[in-house]
Amino acid sequence: MELSRKDFLKLSIPATGSLILGGGMLMNPKLVQAASASSSKMDELALLYDSSKCTGCRACEAACRRANELPPEHKPSDLSATSWTCIKSVELDNDGEKEQVFLKRQCMHCTDAACVRACPNGTLYHNEYGFVAYNRETCTGCGYCTDACPFNVPRLDGNSFMGVNKMSKCTMCTTPGLDRISDGLEPSCVNTCPYGALQYGDRSELITAANQRVQVLKADGKSGANLYGENELNGLHTMYILQDTPEIYGLPDNAKISFATTAWKNVLQPVGWVFGGIIVVALGINYIVARANSNKEAK
Amino acid sequence: MSNQIVEKYKKPVRVLHWVHTVSFVLLFLTGLVLFVPGLSGIAQGSITRIIHRLGAIVFIVAPLVYMIMDPSAIGRGLKQAFTWGSEDMGWLKAAPAYYFLNKEGNMPPQGSMNTGQKMWWFITLVFGVIFVITGLIMWFATGAFVQWMVVIHDISFIVAGCMLLLHIYLGVMHPLMNEAWGAITNGNITAEYAKKHHGKWYEEISKAK
Questions:
Q1: Which phi and psi angles does A48 have, rounded to 5°?
Q2: B169: chain A residues, CB-CB within 8 Å
Q3: Among B50, B58, B48, which residue's Cα sits nearest to residue B24?
Q4: How far is CA B136 from the centre of its chain?
Q5: Cβ proximity of A220 and A213 under 8 Å
């Protein structure tokens, strides 16, 4: 089992060479395209949830499970890999008088989406409608998106100890094979809501309608009423009519993407390639020069 | 005289070196799949993450076992990594001519580790600890701060990964380091090589005899 230095060289050079070359050739342009397709917009569509009309009946949860073939679960307390939407109860304080209201949690489909920025291989991307979709097959389960999302939406299923995971979240009913939007239908939660708390359609029309509704609520005594999502992260595609401040609903008042999220893809990955490239080239040059000089001396 | 053999690395050191090498190369390659989007296809079934975690366990446990078996090595190892002197500056100045042009020139006599090896040893210790701390947090915690652990883990990856390439190159390819492979496989180098490459160390062991 004597492996000489020469044997080791002979074995390792083609092995590493083919790995690096293979990796380069596999660089899938589609992945890169998908990641940058966010800017191409048709008529911008969005979902609007009116918390003042929601009764917390959870019909949207059931409809979402049916439409997206998710396993049944009774009254989930939080989003999960198998609960893409859930109703959360919130307590408002109307000058000392408590009032229980609801918030429908789901993916906010941000225009500037932290998860899309954090995803190392373009698994998460903006689809043609501006919604944040993903390719479940290419997901490696790294979980960078789950740590990056300011709304804590994407979740991993599987075994977190061994790290055998896939990310899972609401796609606004655009999951391939279960796509309602391309068929001209509304998202299943919107379609099912019996109280008109959910609307779906042209984003700017929804904003106009939402602002009118906020005025009505304000006139009704809800002085803190506001529209959430018009400008957050360059505009969310899930917008909320809230009866009080975002904090009371557990939403970030000033949703931001951390530098740590963008640092990976925008700084570290390119820097890694530059340094890796420099060292490989430098070592190659050194080998040529040093060998020529030591051969000269040997003569 | 020129056929005389001296032992450069004792067996436990060599075993630790190779166990750690296997684990670090596995960690390097399974981490690389996230840096090269084209390689992410391999990672889709999370198999690379399983290998990464198994590799991490070996990476952590192997040095611990070594330190338990030989506690005095801890102090020795730390001292070597953190003792720097004027000879190191001399080495740095003389290194380009030496490694490119085969000109020994003003190369000061080196100890058991030359300045370059010491730099690598320093990086191995410091970034090894950083890798372990940030990696364990990434493994067992969730939350926004974990993203910073990823950033630090990946800075370490770039530094240690580049140095790994340099280390492998010097060990197996550089024309002048022709006995480095023997030193870390069967443990021996010739007295001639020892004198030339580790003059200070050779003097010490000759005196000790």
A1: -125, 125
A2: 283, 286-287
A3: B58
A4: 21
A5: no
* pLDDT, tens digit, 9 for 90 and up, residues B137-168: 999 998 889 999 999 999 999 999 999 999 99
- Mutate which of A30, A152, A279, A280 to disrupt the B interface (most B C-beta within 10 Å)? A279
For the record, the structure tokens of B15 come out as 């075993």
Q: Are A146 and A211 in contact (CB under 8 A)?
A: no
Q: Which pTM does this prediction carry?
A: 0.86
3-class secondary structure, A241: strand
Mutate to test the interface with B, among A121, A137, A149, A291 (most CBs of B within 10 A): A121
Tokens, residue B43: 């990672």
β-bridge partners, B15: none
